[in-house]
Design the sequence.
């Protein structure tokens, strides 16, 4: 294989992309420096925030681009980027985490928990890790991630101190959300990027991906539940979701929130529309404060900043990544996509793969299957992961999530996903 040629800007972008990846694994070090205090404690605290990592290094890239090629070139590059996904994740995260939506989903999960013939807290935990990620195929993965993460945080993470429980649960959550959105053609970012190009509709996704994903999601949730059932059982049902059960939300208010959520999902590809709806939603919550909790504006903005940085840095990786994918056979591609997804956003990976000409249907399946399989290994692997990261990190020791521990926690559920996606048929 001949090495592709690259411009100086592309080489710098790839170097900074690698630095950003190393930085995400180094945030505990920056957190320790920040806790020591001193003149630069504020800077170390900023650099210890995983959500700020890619945005920070994207800014460095733009400065380098302006110095080497001129400010106009840097501005032109920014104008060429598509920031629809970061904007959508921000909007849907805030709406999905609103009190009426959380109260509705918590009640539904709680009601189903009474039907399952096991301890109710155990049942709620299982349904949060299985049913909610599968709902991501309809309400989109970022919304499912937000709902599941808040329910886990309020119901279990603040009441169970076992660190192994938290990291394994986080790994299962990230993997299940990544694969749980492939039952339809519009809800998972890596599928959305290629569905039109490959001619895949929801019927195709159900028959080729859906049953495999559903099987892996159900089994992953079952394994986690069986492993930690003794820790889960003592958590009272009254505690689970207590943050959204203090006061009843009128059905009319819930219906309006659901309508906003559905409308934003419907117009997910039209930022001018869904941002307008989002601003109207913020106004509505202000008008009916009595039925609201504080909106996750800060967390949503940080997640959007993270994803926007990934868009800026990832946009200049085509020079090496596309050729690398093109030279892989289907089976090698599956393993390669699974591994590369841990280091790049899986939506960017599938998009670059869709540009390769003359591919077979089996090659395309392996590309997307590998991309969603590896979507839970790191915080950067799948667009919804930073949302879950931002919501749950406060429940971990030191208020931070160690990337290596997340990787280990996601190893088993990823293996389960591998087995299902490589099944014949």
Sequence:
């Amino acid at each position: 294989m001949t090495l592709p040629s690259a411009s100086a800007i592309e080489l710098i972008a790839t170097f900074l992309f690698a630095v950003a990846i190393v930085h995400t694994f180094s945030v505990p070090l920056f957190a320790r420096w920040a806790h020591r205090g001193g003149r630069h404690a504020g800077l170390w605290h900023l650099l210890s925030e995983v959500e700020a990592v890619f945005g920070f290094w994207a800014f460095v890239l733009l400065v380098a681009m302006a110095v080497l090629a001129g400010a106009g070139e840097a501005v032109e590059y920014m104008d060429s980027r598509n920031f629809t996904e970061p904007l959508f994740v921000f909007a849907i995260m805030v709406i999905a985490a609103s009190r009426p939506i959380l109260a509705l989903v918590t009640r539904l999960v709680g009601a189903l928990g009474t039907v399952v013939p096991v301890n109710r807290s155990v049942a709620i935990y299982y349904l949060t890790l299985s049913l909610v990620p599968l709902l991501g195929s309809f309400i989109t993965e970022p919304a499912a991630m937000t709902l599941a993460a808040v329910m886990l945080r309020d119901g279990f993470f603040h009441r169970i101190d076992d660190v192994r429980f938290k990291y394994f649960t986080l790994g299962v959550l990230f993997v299940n959300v990544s694969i749980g959105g492939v039952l339809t053609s519009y809800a998972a970012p890596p599928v959305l990027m290629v569905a039109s190009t490959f001619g895949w509709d929801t019927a195709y996704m159900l028959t080729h991906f859906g049953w495999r994903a559903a099987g892996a999601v159900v089994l992953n949730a079952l394994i986690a539940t069986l492993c930690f059932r003794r820790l889960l059982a003592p958590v009272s049902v009254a505690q689970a979701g207590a943050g959204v059960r203090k006061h009843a939300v009128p059905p009319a208010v819930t219906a309006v929130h659901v309508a906003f959520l559905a409308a934003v999902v419907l117009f997910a590809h039209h930022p001018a529309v869904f941002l307008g709806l989002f601003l109207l939603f913020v106004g509505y919550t202000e008008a009916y404060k009595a039925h609201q909790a504080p909106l996750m504006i800060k967390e949503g903005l940080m997640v959007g900043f993270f994803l926007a940085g990934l868009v800026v840095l990832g946009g200049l990786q085509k020079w090496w990544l596309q050729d690398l994918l093109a030279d892989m056979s289907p089976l090698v591609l599956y393993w390669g996509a699974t591994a590369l997804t841990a280091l790049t956003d899986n939506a960017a990976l599938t998009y670059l793969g869709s540009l390769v000409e003359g591919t077979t249907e089996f090659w395309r399946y392996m590309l997307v299957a590998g991309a969603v399989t590896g979507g839970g290994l790191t915080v950067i692997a799948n667009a919804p992961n930073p949302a879950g990261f931002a919501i749950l990190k406060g429940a971990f020791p030191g208020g931070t999530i160690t990337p290596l521990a997340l990787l280990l926690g996601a190893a088993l559920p990823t293996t389960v996903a591998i087995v299902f996606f490589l099944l014949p048929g």
The CA atoms of residues 136 and 144 lie 5 Å apart. Residues 238-245 have pLDDT under 50 and may be disordered. The chain is about 75% helix and 0% strand.
